[in-house]
Amino acid sequence: MSTGPAVVLLSGGMDSAVALAEARAQGHRCHALSVRYGQRHSSELDAAARVAKALGAHEHRVVDVDLRAIGGSALTDDIAVPQSPGTGIPATYVPARNTVLLALALGYAEVLGAHDIYVGVNAVDYSGYPDCRPEFVQAFEALARLATRAGVEGARLQVHTPLIQLTKADIVRRGLALGLDYGLTHSCYDPDARGRPCGRCDSCALRAKGFAEAGAVDPIVLR
Q: Less Cβ around it within 10 Å: N or C end of the chain?
């Protein structure tokens, strides 16, 4: 059981919330890191603040990076959010987002003297994003060993992906077992002005599938 610091990338969605709960369960002092990267709404950042507080994060920091400056995604550009699941890499893929987010987490970890980063990527029930695959995470760990003072001096930084081989239903069950209140989270890519989920986008569909297959009720639906 570790008691050292860990950086946890926290978007406010259910996967990153479970990743934070996992890091806490491992005994880490959790430093939650959220990124305001130019996403089209603030609902997920509001959810991240709720989750960080509820799960007792030692700190919750929000960093600004303007990925709208390069666009190329329905989440950062004037591109419609798909209202039904499609094939291939969806329009909601944000170019280089996880690379940028992990780079920020890596820098923060160096400042803290942390050797652990947690991220809630998933390669089973996910939207087909290339930067959610195990190969990407392994490559980033290799980069971290080469690109940081800590790595050059022999410290091994590990990127933990506790959900990467879980189905969405397994993720739901794991979060419930860890005491996570999913009512605090937000998954929708295209919420209304009050932050209510659209129920049609990729992310809403995956969330609904996970709760249905887990035999659990999504508290968001009860609002």
A: N
